[in-house]
# Entry
Amino acid sequence: MYKLYYSPGACSMAIHVILNEIGASVQLENVSIKEGKNRSPEFLKVNPRGQVPVLIEGSHVMREGGAIIVYLCDKHKSNLLPREGLPRAEALEWLMFCNATLHPAYSRAFWLMKKAGEVQGKDQMLKMAADWINQLWQEVEQRLSTHAYLCGDAPTAADILLTVIANWSGNIPQPITIGPKTRALFGKIVQRSAYQKALQAEQVEYKMAS
# Structure
């Protein structure tokens, strides 16, 4: 039995979906960022950073989403992460693109929205942040011009995390442009029963699929 601390629709949803994909038993604990539950004394004892996801297995606590995804896929021998060689390297590269490049690009925009207040130049800074996000989505669209999924003919964990992150786009007060091939990918991923189950449990509406 795993225990997952999540915030609805946050990057923790990718962990939630993968837990569903592997058929794992999981206890869900909602620490909604929007409601400030992630800053509660109880949760800060679990993760002093106040961030999700957090996955607990027995007495072991894991606090980094990318590491959690790799651990779960390896432990449960999931096809969402190849076992070895170049296919694994490629799948990890795209997973890290989502986790360490695309996710921080959105986080930068959200930080500006929350912290910059009425600082002069805020709109220009937000536009620059959105421009970078759009550049990353252009890279994904180009990739999908020759691949059904990020890593070929079958989905990987990277496709799941990519799909989760995309749904944040409507929260940014600048145009976020995502191409048709990328939106079609979201549609395929969201239709998976594991994803639908997570959306229902977290009461999240998915808006980015074509």
Q: What stands out?
A: The mean pLDDT is 96.
